[in-house]
Amino acid sequence: MDDRTQSWFGRRTSRWQDWPLEQLLANKQRQGTRISVVIPARNEERTVAAVVGAIARALIDDLPLVDELVVMDSDSTDATAKAAASAGAVVYRTAEVLPAAGSFPGKGEALWKSLAVTAGDLLVFIDADLTSWGPHFVSGLIGPLLAQPEVQLVKGFYTRVRTETDGSTSTEGGRVTELVARPLISLWWPELAGVVQPLAGEWAARRGLMESLCIPVGYGVELATLMDTAARHGLDAVAQVDLGSRAHRHQANHDLALMAAELLTVADRRRPGGMASTASDLRQFVRDETGGVHQVQRSIPVHERPPAASVHRDRHD
Questions:
Q1: Are the C-beta atoms of residues 67 and 78 closer than 8 Å to each other?
Q2: What is the CATH number of domain 3-310?
Q3: Quick one: which of 32, 52, 118, 126 could link to 36 by a disulfide (CB 3.0–4.6 Å)?
Q4: Do 261 and 175 contact (CB within 8 A), yes or no?
Q5: Can you give the C-alpha Rg of the chain in angstroms?
Q6: Packing angle, helices 136-147 and 21-31, rounded to 10
Q7: In this structure, are residues 89 and 52 in contact, taking their beta carbons and an 8 Å threshold?
Q8: Binning pLDDT at 50, 70 and 90, where does residue 166 land?
Q9: Where do the structural domains in the chain lie, given as residue ranges?
């Protein structure tokens, strides 16, 4: 990191323990701030209830820090919606929100549409497939936003608990982070090199920021939000919080390759002189049970939603 990035790292990096609940609640009440937690989910009936339930008990029932707990069900074919509702969330089916705008599959689409059904001034995004984590993920991410008015976006980072075949655990930032996102940032956006996990699925932002940005409909939402926030508001608008450790379901390499292609598209759009892809396919090869090799093509999600502030939507008062 250069001197400027190193200075930012020291000023804008904290630990979740730095943000005690009583202090956060006092700040929230003094500022009259509303907080919404949004959990995008697709076929996560196995884990979503535990995620929702832990947040509801700790941050709504025991201490009223969170005002809304919303699950955006992205075309699930299992009992995700039922499990989430039973655990205490308000559930919206993504395809039924803003129906006139149509619907795309993807995480970014769920987050974009959540802006139409939530009312919080601060938005906290938590993945639905977490298996080792805690409600302090939410409180830690809220801390810098309540304490530092200039901060617009807070990224979480953590030890990723991944058990290898030999029984060891990996603490790296994730395969796509290490092989795609970090090299991209180091080459083209070195001022962001101090962000420990740019693709972290747990992050928080001010509503005004989220409503002002174009949102990729797929997995590129985290990288795009980070790059666009820094470009528009400067590096000091970004903070990060060490949340401890995290475990979740891991994806197959073929699925990660599609994610990587999305990230490359998002980054190229934001690079001076880059080309804005409009449509493309990822070609991959699979071996069938007879031993033959076949080529498959998968569409790379390249669509980006316009800023939500420009789209008519119903909002809670």
A1: no
A2: 3.90.550.10
A3: 118
A4: no
A5: 19
A6: 50
A7: yes
A8: low
A9: 3-310
